[in-house]
Design brief:
This protein is of the alpha+beta class and 382 residues long. It has 4 helices and 21 strands. The termini are far apart.
């Protein structure tokens, strides 16, 4: 005999079967943070390696031979143009000047006697007291005496110049370095080694190099109308010191070389910087940040929103009007702070996903939350 189940038990079993037949509720769409892109002007810069050079450099060398008698400057100090730096023993040059002055006096005395003799012969030749040949000889002797006197005057001047060269003077004003010769050292005219070096550093040059390809890209962008460097801002240059700090005074771009270096394929640019505190030293390696221009209507995409596919191509995920994830292939030209300058693939008004990228893929429905806060940093670098 089969026993029939109680009615309450049968009701519970029927209710359980009905619940198991219903499907579970669909999961909520993943939540993402987006940034709405917009077109805006952006200042484009290029960080280039550079080296500091003094505005003027002069190597102090002797112009005569002799032994150094005294050094009259302090190494590392500021000197003025014309200031005496070294003295060379001058006894021999004083004697040479005296000899030249004596030769000049003798030549000038000869001028008087020969001129007087020629004058007398000119009166005697009319009465046939002397021959014409004797008069001609007297005139020639007078002219030779005057020529000898002129040569002796030049000798005196040369002797004075050599005597003045015994006092070696600073050719320019600036800071003088260490002395490579001491008192008692023999120096010679035309020697290869300088006695010391003077550099004027109140204003310095910074020579930087830029590739010819970068210059061509820049000109193409200007020609296409997307980049403007016609304003005064295009000539500004900022300097990054070796310790990473920014030099407090901006410089100005002076010129670029007219030819490309065939060895490196680069062009040399020169900028001028005031250096009142002497912080920039000649030979120092720095990074020059050149303001190339302003790109109008640029799209700046946060770097966290730009990824790379397995082939290394830049891609971005955006949310369309139906809150569906769409993949875009983009061209990220250069970084600007913590953003990319995107020249293709994105447009103003696109909602770029910058948060929650791991949980989404193209074609998925998403829930757009509060836009992520992304800070922008001014300036661009290469």
């Amino acid at each position: 005999m089969h026993r029939q189940a109680p009615l309450p038990l049968l009701g519970a079993m029927a209710l359980l079967a009905a619940c198991s037949a219903q499907s579970p509720p669909p999961p909520a769409p993943p939540k993402v943070g987006v940034v709405t892109l917009r077109a805006e002007p952006v200042e484009l810069t290029a960080d280039l390696p550079g080296r500091v050079a003094a505005a003027e450099t002069s190597e102090v060398r002797p112009q005569i031979n002799g032994v150094i008698r005294a050094r009259l400057f302090t190494e590392g100090s500021m000197v003025r143009a014309g200031q005496v730096l070294y003295e060379i023993e001058d006894a021999a040059y004083r004697a040479a000047l005296g000899t030249a002055q004596g030769n000049l006096a003798r030549a000038e005395a000869t001028i008087g006697s020969t001129t007087a003799l020629a004058r007398r012969y000119r009166g005697l030749v009319d009465i046939n007291a002397v021959s014409q040949q004797e008069l001609d000889n007297a005139d020639a002797a007078a002219r030779q005496a005057r020529a000898d006197a002129a040569a002796q005057r030049s000798g005196v001047q040369a002797a004075r110049v050599n005597l003045d060269f015994t006092r070696i003077r600073a050719p320019i004003s600036g800071r003088i370095g260490r002395s490579f010769y001491t008192r008692g050292a023999l120096v010679q005219s035309g020697q290869a080694d300088a006695l010391a070096t003077i550099m004027r550093t109140d204003t310095v040059y910074v020579d930087v190099t830029q590739s010819a390809a970068q210059l061509l890209d820049l000109k193409d962008a200007i020609a296409a109308g997307g980049l403007s460097n016609q304003g005064r801002e295009s000539a500004r240059v900022r300097l990054i010191l070796p310790n990473g700090k920014t030099y407090p005074i901006e410089g100005r771009l002076e010129f670029s070389e007219v030819a490309v270096d065939p060895q490196t394929g680069s062009v040399t640019l020169r900028a001028t910087f005031p250096n009142p505190q002497g912080l920039l030293l000649p030979g120092m390696f720095v990074r020059a940040r050149l303001v190339e221009g302003v790109r109008q209507n640029a799209i700046l995409a946060p770097q966290q929103g730009i990824t790379r596919d397995p082939r290394g191509r830049a891609t971005a995920l955006v949310v369309d009007a139906a809150n569906t994830v769409v993949s875009r292939r983009v061209i990220a030209e250069r970084p600007v702070g913590d953003k990319w300058v995107v020249t293709s693939g994105l447009a103003p008004g696109d909602r770029l996903i910058v948060e929650g990228l791991v949980a989404v893929k193209p074609g998925m429905k998403v829930s757009v939350g509060k836009p992520a806060q992304v800070t922008a940093a001014p300036g661009a670098g290469r």
